[in-house]
TrEMBL record:
Domain Macro: 1-174
Name of the protein in question: Macro domain-containing protein
Listed PROSITE patterns: MACRO
InterPro entries for the chain: Macro_dom, Macro_dom-like
Xref: SMART domains: A1pp
Length: 174
């Protein structure tokens, strides 16, 4: 199948997806928060937080993997997007663009290393962390397509929660 046929754009809650892995837009402490992170933790149940606490920390732009507990997927990959809120943005170790691309890259690498044939992403950093939506969509799309065209032979889904996000991806894929 062509790489572009292995990229799917859907709208809804990522907690309902039955892909092998779903990705969580996490924070460095891997604590249950609001947004997609809150939705994933409440659907998975408290054992997810217990496993996250054992891992303890994930650097910005990196990813870690856990079980999925009560979720219908097999694994959750937690990635920490760049935080562009005014008080946090100047503490980033690298450019926001590189860090955001690294979230998608490291999550796909973990999926590949764990034999996971399908992975679904939310629109990382575009909520609480304030990454501009259309710019984030372009970086996500470029990074995902690069991996689909080179070394990941599985399927990638981008799960949009808002019409704005869906529109950003439609403009890239049409
Ligand atoms: N399914 C899919 N996408 C969702 C869902 C859902 N159920 N709920 C929200 N979104 P955010 P961030 C979208 O704020 O910006 C948390 O507190 C939402 O519309 O969840 O990376 C964490 O613990 C947006 O497009 O993540 C961190 O502290 C996208 O998910 C911090 O927020 C990401 O929004 C991470 O901020």
């Amino acid at each position: 199948m062509k790489p572009s046929d292995r990229l799917h754009i859907v709208k809804g809650s990522i907690t309902r997806l039955t892909t092998d892995a779903i990705v969580n837009a996490a924070n460095n402490q891997l604590r249950a928060g609001s947004g997609v992170c809150g939705a994933i933790h409440s659907a998975a149940g408290p054992m997810l937080q217990t496993e996250c606490m054992k891992i303890g920390w994930c650097p910005t732009g990196q990813s870690v993997i856990t079980d999925a507990y009560n979720l219908p997927c097999k694994k959750v990959i937690h990635t920490v997007g760049p935080d562009l809120r005014p008080w946090a943005a100047d503490k980033l170790a690298e450019s926001p663009e590189r860090l955001l691309a690294s979230c998608y890259d490291t999550a796909i690498s973990l999926a590949k290393a764990n034999g996971l044939k399908s992975i679904a992403f939310p629109c990382i950093s575009t909520g609480v962390y304030m990454y501009p939506k259309s710019e984030a969509a372009r970086i996500a799309y470029d990074t995902i397509m690069h991996r689909l065209s080179t070394d990941y032979d599985g399927e990638v889904t981008v799960c949009c929660f808002t019409d704005d996000d869906l529109e950003s991806y439609r403009q890239l894929t049409d």
